[in-house]
Amino acid sequence: MRFVLAIICCKLIRLALRLMGRGGTALPGKVALRICPDMLSRLARGVTVAVVTGTNGKTTTCRMLEKMLRDAGKDCFANRSGSNLERGITADFVSNAGLFGRPRRKLAVIECDEAAFRRVCGELDPAVCVVTNVFRDQLDRYGEVTHTLGAIREGLDHAPHARVCLNADCSLTASLAPCAPDRVRFFGVDAPLSGSASDVSDAPRCIVCGAQYEYDYHTFAHLGGFRCPKCGYSRTEPDVAVLSAADLSADGSSAEIRVDGEIYDAVVDLPGGYNLYNAAAAIAAATAIGVGADSAVHSLAKLESGFGRMERFALGDAHVTMVLVKNPAGCDRAIDFVRSLPGSLTAVFCLNDNLADGTDVSWIWDAGFERLFEGEDGARLRLIVSGTRAEDMRLRLKYAGADENAVRVIHTTGELVAAIAEEKGEVCVLPTYTAMLPLRAELAARCGGKEFWK
């Protein structure tokens, strides 16, 4: 009885919230779990679940994987809103269920927060787990990378039946392989990525013995062909590998990808070298579920970005791209993207310090904003800052090389959208999570975009 009551309450609350124009992504699940604490595990019975976790790339990898499954004729559902804690995941499972809990679709792609992963895996008993990477992120919540790694390791311990897809190029992520002996599929990039800097590393020393890593090549941050000269811990040859990449541009890239020994030509319809990692992760997961490699690779040619992740809007004469940033590694990749845009452009940095962003914003001092002002780049760049910590962002840009008097400070969403509409050409907006939500909603309303949960 409690189970059915929880489903009814969850569905009614979500319906009411969406009629009010709100997402209803977390509260319905929170109420449902209060009524029936074990309902997620009950709803997951009979559903084949792929769970994606990691610091960066979760949402985009899920979108890629979801498309691969649908293109292969496999009907699935996903927590597309990015509400990736237990309550948000529960709400989406309820949405997929009838009044008595019977699932409508029996395949799910679930994005999961790293800290919630340990509990969610125990509830879902996933068939596939993907760990994209591990970087320093939200120090006030996660602590150092070893704490994040420990949470993910505990989650894998609770997923004894899962095929586990790990990033071979991330020394931290690859160290999880012993959690799933004989069940691991590695993915990675076999060559350096042009346009990506070898910047500050979150894992300079061997996780096994503490010696300094040596690298045959870097892709970015601590990712690449690592090896420990002391104990021998090193990168494992991936099952899914990006062998080479060309035409890395603001529109996407072409690549040569090896999947279980066979080589395929791929077009990845999202910009940024880091999206090649997301593509490889999605292919590893899709083929683990049973999708043919050729079909999975072909799906990369027509992708839809996740909300706020390389999402584009046309606002007057401004061509707006929104790129969520939340930590140094991800911000560095966004800076690479800004630098790749041609001609004069406007960069908008929106920095908040709410709980969902991480209240510690000191990470901005580790991101390489200096690269924005190298050579002639600085002369073509117009700068706007916004958010609760706009002045901190302005100060960071000053020390990176900007003329602080030329940095425009805007505090409200309405004023910011109006300012963006006055720009011409490329505008790149780099917001933290809670800064992104109202700004994206306003842009979607003016430009005809989808609601973030769709």
UniProtKB/TrEMBL annotation:
Gene3D superfamilies xref list: Mur-like, catalytic domain (3.40.1190.10)
Residues engaged in binding Zn(2+): C206, C209, C228, C231
UniProt-listed SUPFAM superfamilies: MurD-like peptide ligases, catalytic domain
Keywords annotated in UniProt: ATP-binding, Cell shape, Cell wall biogenesis/degradation, Ligase, Metal-binding, Nucleotide-binding, Peptidoglycan synthesis, Zinc
Stretches assigned to the Lipid II isoglutaminyl synthase (glutamine-hydrolyzing) subunit MurT C-terminal domain: 324-436
GO biological-process terms attached to the record: cell wall organization; peptidoglycan biosynthetic process; regulation of cell shape
Pathway entry: Cell wall biogenesis; peptidoglycan biosynthesis
Domain Mur ligase central per the UniProt entry, residue ranges: 52-190
EC number(s) stated in the UniProt entry for this protein: 6.3.5.13
Protein's recorded name: Lipid II isoglutaminyl synthase (glutamine-hydrolyzing) subunit MurT
Provenance organism: Candidatus Scatomorpha intestinavium
